């Protein structure tokens, strides 16, 4: 199989998969902000897009999420809870990524589509 064929195959798979989910990855906290890569944008399958986030205090024992009022930027909000959840959306509200933090460490990711 030639390189050209492999590249086209990769691009078709990328377009199909990245269309079905919000393809965010490489989550980290830098300088108090949650950062990530949008793989669809990075690899040219989508143009730049805006994201929204809602933060929650997360009780790991009960899986209960309590909204943190006013926490709608990517700055990690102060919270008495050691665990937080950030629900990220772009243009389709059905496609979300929830990022779980313990302090400033990413400890889990859930996707919905």
Task: Describe the model.
- The chain has one domain (3-112).
- Helices cover 19% and strands 42% of the residues.
- It has 2 helices and 7 strands.
- The protein has a 5-stranded antiparallel beta sheet with strand order 4-3-5-6-7, with no helix packed on it.
- A hairpin with a 2-residue loop joins strand 1 and strand 2.
- The longest helix has 18 residues, at 3-20.
- The chain is elongated and about 55 Å long.
- It starts with a helix and ends with a strand.
In terms of topology, how is this protein built?
Blueprint: H1 3-20, E1 24-30, E2 33-38, H2 39-42, E3 52-59, E4 64-67, E5 83-89, E6 96-102, E7 105-112
Antiparallel strand pairs: 1-2, 3-4, 3-5, 5-6, 6-7
SSE arrangement, N to C: HEEHEEEEE
Say how many strands there are.
7
Using the alpha-carbon principal axes, give the shape: elongated
Derived structural class:
alpha+beta
Contiguous low-pLDDT stretches (5 residues minimum) are none
User: What is the number of independent domains?
Assistant: 1
Compute the separation of the termini in Å: 33 Å
| Main sheet properties | 5 strands, antiparallel
Mean pLDDT score, rounded?
91
Q: Helix content range of the residues, please?
A: 10-25%
User: What proportion of the residues form beta strands (DSSP E)?
Assistant: 35-45%
Q: What is the gyration radius calculated from CA atoms?
A: 16 Å
Q: Give the spatial strand order of the biggest sheet.
A: 4-3-5-6-7
Note the total helix count: 2
